[in-house]
Each structure stands twice: as structure tokens, then as C-alpha cells.
Write a structure and sequence with these properties.
Order of helices and strands of chain B: HHHHHHHHH
Shape of chain A: globular
Number of helices of chain B: 9
Structural class of chain B: mainly alpha
Structural class of chain A: mainly alpha
Oligomer: heterodimer
Helix content of chain A: over 70%
Radius of gyration of chain A: 21 Å
Number of helices of chain A: 7
Shape of chain B: globular
């Protein structure tokens, strides 16, 4: 099964080597088309004017910050259930990317909110739950950084990620109960999207571009993490070789 | 089965009440938080009575967060935790019992102190009862959710600050429904029972997720 074949980091790195140029090319293509469509072709909104174009960055970023957490959740299941050696590498390198997308969604959202709602920030349900998501990403990143042992850090972060995944719907629900001003979901609905197709198509293409961008960055970050662990291990080995007799056998993280 | 559970509960309770356990410091901290608030927002009694339930809830949340690092830290330092891991008892139950004992020593005093402190905040009698009731139902959830953070950071030196950062997002739903149930009792058109029952549900969910996740984290950190 391919899933297991790529448990070997060297094989995985070779796959990344092959995949990455294609992904980067596709990503650039989609971004070129998407940006052109959203900046020049898409009509201005009759109420919002040109500020509606912020949507083409804001909405994909907001989708991506959810997707990134889903990727981390799947990786955490991989760490805890199958002990897949690359799962914790995947989870660790996804967290900063997710935090960046969340931050981007918040910043573009508040820049959009200023002309539309008249304020940069309101304690509205969606804004608040995205802010909570950002705090969770940052907490997870801190947990990774504070633990010396990568395997233990991976397992601890996986437990927290899964608890967070159980809690996010509860947080979402409770914050909705608390306060709501943001418009409800208008693209993915049972009775079809309520947004005009001229505005929708650039959005779809931008969303695909963002998703490809995520995978490009994620694969690069995973590669860097694997290489970083190799460097660290080589250093440890060099240090152990210069002080013989102190080396101890411990479990090694994937490299 | 009940024998060892009872013994563990009594041991934890005794340890946290006696010298060095400092369970009651939480109540003092609660008092300090409530005292500081009027300096921040001004001594307007109408305002204080309006935001009183929220202040009490935030004070209880902060006091709980501060006490959480004691849940496993001392047991880990003297090796008791390793013995518990090797004892062959279900670790989830051990964690649940430890949480109950911790709550009885730190959470319950907060609930008892709440009516007294609500007098300082000019909270009227109905709201006082409502806040106390919601705290009684909600603070166990805070302790149980906090146990996850406590077990994740138990291996770290000075993990207290990180613990608070990890636990606060997870505790937001409890805070929301606790405060809105207390508010509903005073003026909102929403009936009191709806948020209150959701708060009860959250506590029950926490009683499942908390011990399971925290036991998993403890096992991994001891490997």
C-alpha cells in the first residue's frame, strides 16, 4: 500500500522531489488565472464596490485554516493509531501554516470589516471562533517547541489536536449561541450557492490555488523538518563520537 | 474496586488540604480577583451587579487554571505517578478520581465562596443562586478539561503558563454557557434551563473526554 511505502522518509523525499515542480507549476497557473479573474474580470458588487475583491483572499484563507486543522487531525490519528513515522512530521509542519492562514483570514477580514461594518473588529461568532482557532494553533506550536524529545512532543501534540478537533464544533456552536453578526455560509448550502456565478467562479479558482499552495508549502515544510532532524541527529552522533561511552540507545524520530 | 478508589480519593483530598497542598489559596485568589475588578471598572454598583456573574465566572476560571499544575506535578516528582501507571488499575478511572478529589479541594471552595463574593458585587438574590448553581455544575468541567493540559505539560519545567494557554480555548464553551445561564436567570428572555442543561451536558462530555485524553497523555509522557 502506498501509504506505508512512503513511511520511509528517503522514499518520501524522492516522491516530494518528483511532485513538487508539478505542484508549484499548477499552483502558479491557478494563482495567475484566479488573480486575473478576481482583480479584473469579476464585477464590482453593487453595494460593496471594489472592496468585494478582498473576498477572494479572505474566503479561501478561512477555508484553508479549517482544512489545515483537518490535515493535522488526520496526521494525529496517524501518529496515535498507526504510529506512522511521517505523521508527526506532517502535523508539526502543518501547524505554523495553519496559523498563518488563520492570521491572514483575520487580517483580511478586519480590513474588509472596516469599510463594510465600520469597525475593524467585532465580537461576532465567526470572528471569535477563528480567533480561538488561532490561539489553539499557537498553543500547539508552543507545545511542540517546549518539548525536547520529538517523539513525545509528537504524541502530546496529537492528543491535544484530537481534543481540539472534538472541541472545535462545540466552541463553534457555543459562540454561535453567544453572538452572531457575520453572514451565514453562502457558498456551500443544500439549495445551491446564493452568490452570483460571476463572483463565484474566481472564488472557486482562488480556493483551488490556495489549496495547491497549502500542499506545496506543506510538502516543503515536511522536507525541511526531515532534513532538520537528520542534521540534528548527525550532530548528536558527532558529539557522541567525540565523547565515547555516554551514548544511550533511544527511540529516534523519523528522519 | 471501590476500595482503592475511595483510598485514592481520600489520599488526594488529604494531601491537597493539608500543609503544602494550598487548596484554599485558590479561594484567596478568587477574592483578590473580585476585589481588583472594581478598581478597573469603577465602583458603580449598577454596572457591577450587571457584570457580577461574569466576574465571578472569570475569577473561578482563573483560580482553577492556577491550581491545575498541582494535579499531577507533585505525584510525578516523587514517583507516585509511575506507581499509579504500573498498578494495573484503569488509568482513566485513576485520573477521574484524582480530578474529583482536586475539584473537591479547589473547586468546591470556590462555589461556597461565590455567594459571599456576590454580595461585594451587588448581585441580587436570584442571580446569586443562579451563579452558585452554575458554578457548582460548571467548575468540574473546568477541572476535567484542565486535566488534559496538566497531563500534557506535566513533563515540562514551569509548564504552568503554557497549561493556561492550552486550556483556555477548550474552556470557552463552559464559560459561555455558565455566564449565559446566570444572566438568563436575571433578565434575558431566554429561559434559565436551556443554557443550564447545556452546561450540564458539557460537564458530562468533559467527564469522558478529559480522563481519556489525559490518561493517554500521561501514558505517552511516561514511555
Amino acid at each position: 500500500m502506498a501509504f506505508w511505502d512512503y513511511a520511509n522518509p528517503t522514499r518520501f523525499l524522492r516522491l516530494v522531489q518528483v511532485l513538487l515542480p508539478w505542484l508549484i507549476g499548477l499552483c502558479l497557473l491557478f494563482f495567475a488565472v484566479g488573480l486575473y479573474m478576481s482583480l479584473f474580470i469579476a464585477p464590482e458588487d453593487y453595494q460593496q464596490g471594489a472592496t468585494v475583491r478582498i473576498m477572494y483572499l479572505h474566503v479561501p484563507a478561512a477555508w484553508l485554516c479549517m482544512m489545515c486543522y483537518s490535515v493535522m487531525t488526520l496526521s494525529s490519528i496517524g501518529t496515535l493509531v498507526w504510529k506512522h513515522p511521517l505523521a508527526d512530521v506532517s502535523a508539526k509542519s502543518a501547524a505554523p501554516i495553519g496559523a498563518a492562514f488563520t492570521f491572514m483570514a483575520l487580517v483580511t477580514g478586519s480590513l474588509w470589516g472596516k469599510p463594510m461594518w465600520g469597525t475593524y473588529w467585532v465580537w461576532d461568532a465567526r470572528l471569535t471562533s477563528v480567533l480561538v482557532l488561532l490561539i489553539m494553533y499557537l498553543g500547539l506550536m508552543t507545545l511542540w517547541r517546549t518539548m525536547e524529545d520529538q517523539i513525545k512532543a509528537g504524541k502530546a501534540a496529537a492528543v491535544l489536536t484530537l481534543v481540539g478537533a472534538l472541541n472545535l464544533p462545540i466552541i463553534k456552536f457555543s459562540v454561535d449561541w453567544w453572538n452572531t453578526l457575520h453572514q451565514p455560509a453562502s457558498v456551500i448550502r443544500m439549495d445551491g450557492p446564493t452568490i452570483h456565478p460571476d463572483l463565484l467562479w474566481p472564488l472557486v479558482i482562488m480556493a483551488i490555488a490556495f489549496t495547491l499552495f497549502f500542499f506545496v508549502i506543506h510538502l516543503m515544510a515536511m522536507r525541511n523538518e526531515i532534513l532538520r532532524r537528520r542534521v540534528r541527529n548527525l550532530r548528536m552522533r558527532a558529539a557522541a563520537a567525540s565523547h565515547p561511552g555516554t551514548a544511550a540507545a533511544t527511540a529516534q524520530p523519523a528522519e | 474496586m471501590t476500595g482503592w478508589a475511595m483510598a485514592l480519593f481520600q489520599r488526594d483530598l488529604r494531601l491537597s488540604i493539608r500543609v503544602g497542598g494550598s487548596a484554599l489559596v485558590g479561594v484567596l485568589f478568587f477574592l483578590a480577583v473580585v476585589t481588583v475588578i472594581p478598581f478597573g471598572v469603577g465602583p458603580d454598583l449598577n454596572l457591577l451587579s450587571r457584570i457580577g456573574p461574569a466576574i465571578l465566572w472569570i475569577g473561578a476560571l482563573l483560580a482553577t487554571l492556577l491550581g491545575l499544575d498541582r494535579l499531577f506535578q507533585a505525584d510525578r516528582d516523587d514517583g507516585t505517578l509511575d506507581l499509579m501507571l504500573m498498578a494495573g488499575r484503569p488509568l482513566e478511572l485513576v485520573v477521574l478520581i484524582k480530578c474529583l478529589a482536586h475539584w473537591a479541594a479547589t473547586g468546591l471552595p470556590l462555589v461556597v465562596a461565590a455567594p459571599l463574593l456576590s454580595i461585594f458585587l451587588n448581585v441580587d438574590l436570584v442571580a446569586m443562586g443562579a451563579v452558585t448553581l452554575t458554578l457548582l455544575v460548571g467548575t468540574p468541567a473546568l477541572t476535567l478539561i484542565g486535566a488534559i493540559g496538566a497531563s500534557l505539560t506535566v513533563a515540562l519545567r514551569r509548564g504552568g503558563l503554557l497549561l493556561a494557554v492550552l486550556v483556555v480555548p477548550l474552556a470557552i464553551p463552559v464559560l459561555i454557557f455558565g455566564v449565559s445561564a446566570a444572566d438568563a436567570a436575571i433578565h434575558d428572555p431566554v429561559p434559565f434551563m436551556t443554557p443550564f442543561l447545556i452546561l450540564c451536558a458539557l460537564s458530562l462530555i468533559a467527564a469522558v473526554i478529559g480522563p481519556v485524553a489525559s490518561a493517554a497523555a500521561l501514558r505517552f509522557s511516561a514511555e
